[in-house]
């Protein structure tokens, strides 16, 4: 079968590889749409922490496809052991054994892939697969919001106008905030921000005094803006990776004086997947609007280029695999 492979950092190509064989408890799935994100670029460029990647690998940790019975499904990307202390706490993202599709195991940018069956979530009939392909990033965002526990009536600011920021704005509504503002860099993202339901889309310095700020831009400037925008006693949730060798100087005294809660949120949990799939199946999270670019798998060079060099409104970029 054909698969989009990274044999080693710096190279990406379509290769002919053997079909995967299902291990115990696994099923073979047939991907339909595969989302690409900034982390895929980092994987291609070799910028992901080596503890979280194993080359060579097949790209693709965001996807929707079919199971052997023809049902539309998404599967969790993390493959937890299920028996360590963290797994038993329901924090599969902190499992003692890290394994993830598209990072340490072959991902979904291929005709088929093998995943433990218990990680699959069925997408309701009638839901457009385009609205389900964002399940993975949405679960990552949902888990961060769950950790931050916005109180009803909270004033929330999202920093970053990429897909994580836009999904954070859309999902924050679940917690019934007073307002959700989004601070981005590119005015071209205004229409997408509107789809995400933001109250105000800002491209310059945001007002201060937010109860919760979600940093999803993955830039030192974004982190600085996030710290400045969080009110005393507020919460700052960090979701955007700065990159392996980038450091940010912390003004510890200011953090203490501001009585600030700063949290990082890594990946997703089974619980966040269940919540997100429920929202997708109920139509509450209908984020098909987020998919702005579709490419055939064979056009992966153009897809990666669109990911690397955004122009115009740019949401989720997906690769489409032939269905038969
Ligand atoms: Zn991703
Ligand atoms: Zn575990």
TrEMBL record:
Pfam families given in the database record: ADH_N (PF08240), ADH_zinc_N (PF00107)
Molecular-function annotations in GO: oxidoreductase activity
Gene3D superfamilies: Medium-chain alcohol dehydrogenases, catalytic domain, NAD(P)-binding Rossmann-like Domain
Cofactor: Zn(2+)
Alphabetic keyword roster: Oxidoreductase
Entry-linked InterPro entries: ADH-like_C (IPR013149), ADH-like_N (IPR013154), GroES-like_sf (IPR011032), NAD(P)-bd_dom_sf (IPR036291), Zn_alcohol_dh (IPR050129)
Ranges where the Alcohol dehydrogenase-like N-terminal domain occurs: 24-123
Organism superkingdom: Bacteria
Domain Alcohol dehydrogenase-like C-terminal: from-to ranges: 164-281
Protein name per its UniProtKB record: Alcohol dehydrogenase
Organism: Mycetocola tolaasinivorans
């Amino acid at each position: 079968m054909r698969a989009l492979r990274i044999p080693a950092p710096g190279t990406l190509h379509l290769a002919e590889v053997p079909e995967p064989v299902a291990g115990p408890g696994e099923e073979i799935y047939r991907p339909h749409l595969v989302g690409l994100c900034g982390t895929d670029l980092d994987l291609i460029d070799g910028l992901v922490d080596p503890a979280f990647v194993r080359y060579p690998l097949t790209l693709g940790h965001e996807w929707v496809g079919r199971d052997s019975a023809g049902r539309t499904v998404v599967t969790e990307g993390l493959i937890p052991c299920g028996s360590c202390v963290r797994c038993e706490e329901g924090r599969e993202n902190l499992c003692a054994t890290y394994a993830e599709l598209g990072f340490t195991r072959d991902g979904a940018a291929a005709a088929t892939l093998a995943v433990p069956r218990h990680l699959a979530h069925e997408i309701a009939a009638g839901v457009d697969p385009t609205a389900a392909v964002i399940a993975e990033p949405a679960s990552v965002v949902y888990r961060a919001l769950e950790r931050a526990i916005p109180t009803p009536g909270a004033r929330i600011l999202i920093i970053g106008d990429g897909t994580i920021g836009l999904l954070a704005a859309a999902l924050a509504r679940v917690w019934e905030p007073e307002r959700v503002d989004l601070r981005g860099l590119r005015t071209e993202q205004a229409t997408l921000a509107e789809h995400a339901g933001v109250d105000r889309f800002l491209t310059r310095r945001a007002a201060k005094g937010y109860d919760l700020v979600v940093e999803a831009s993955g830039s030192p400037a974004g982190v600085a803006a996030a710290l400045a925008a969080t009110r005393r006693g507020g919460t700052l949730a960090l979701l955007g990776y700065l990159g392996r060798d980038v450091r940010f100087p912390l003004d510890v005294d200011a953090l203490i004086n501001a009585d600030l809660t700063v949290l990082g949120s890594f990946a997703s949990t089974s619980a966040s997947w269940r919540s997100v799939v429920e929202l997708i199946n109920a139509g509450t999270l209908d984020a098909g609007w987020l998919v702005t670019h579709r490419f055939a798998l064979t056009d992966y060079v153009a897809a990666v280029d669109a990911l690397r060099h955004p122009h115009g409104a740019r949401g989720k970029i997906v690769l489409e695999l032939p269905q038969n």
